[in-house]
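Tokenise the fold.
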Amino acid sequence: MTDRWATPERIALRQAVAAFTRDRIAPHLPQWEDDGQLPRSLHRETAEAGFLGIGFDESVGGDGGDLIDISIVSEAIVENGGSTGLLASLYTHGIALPHIVDTGDRELIDRYVRPTLAGQLIGSLGITEPGGGSNVAGISTRAVRDGDHYVVNGAKTFITSSVRADFVTTAVRTGDPGHGGISLIVIDTDTPGFSVSRNLRKMGWHCSDTGELAFDDVRVPAANLVGEENGGFYLVMQQFVTERLSLAVQAYATCQRALDLAVGYARERETFGRPLISRQVIRHKLVDMHRRTEAARALTRRAVERAADSGDTTDPQLILDAAIAKNQAVEAVEWVVNEAVQIFGGMGYMRESEIDRHYRDARLLGIGGGATEVLNDLAAKLLGY
């Protein structure tokens, strides 16, 4: 049976992204982490290389491909010296644009989607609010219709790429309390009344700028409404399967990179006159790291293939698959990066060591896209427990 992940086209894609990562990303990542953000030029370079719009149809300015292709890009970047923090920042449009594309609004697509996929604009998604967390239905940032505009007041927090963003696809309350009163609206960050009230410092994802946003009587054209008024909750929910599977891919790709780094170090490092890898306890650690990585990859790839084939992200089975895959992959990566640091010993605790970055970055994967506990509860309901 043909391996869908190893067709000639996908092998070529993986090789091209790997080469791009080794040349244009890995050597500069430590500096970008110190800077706290990626240069805008990287977005343009990635677009010119043909990798920024993977997963978006050519009709909206993308490079084509499906969720398998998106996953291959993520694998290749992380496994060749990139990081999940870099993916979060460089590909934030993966969560900021799909809602716009799904509505088929040609004006919004031309104004926001095409230039973003060309690396000319940076977009972010504004959902989470102070005290809100995973409760999307509890959003309180309000947008009140005033003629041809909406007037927006409220706050958002933990918003990826929002410090550099040119626009924020923002969840607002336009109706009654609950999920039925939520809308999505695109807000340009140069609009009067919009501000990044804080540039947040984080445990990991240092190269990914993250902001706290304030909306003070921000007047937004009604034409920037994404889809139907009060229909935003469903647009957000439809993207959760893809987001969770993408995070699961990032998790097992980090497992693989951590394992590769640990193996390389164990072969080179000598203790008491012998290579570290000659110690049985180290070899057993590496086998366990390999086993957990392979299990997470197999479970996630199966779910990715189903999602790519179905396209129906409201299918309860796909929602369950994504939740289970993400939690399995997160459990694996947290264990694997911890063991990798242990194998590196003191060097693993140094900022100059790449494994330090993966150790810090991995901790967010069990929080973003739905916390592990939230997804376990969701899975229990879908399984009828």
Remarks:
- The domain at 4-117 is CATH 1.10.540.10 (Butyryl-Coa Dehydrogenase, subunit A; domain 1).
- The first strand starts at residue 123 and ends at 126.
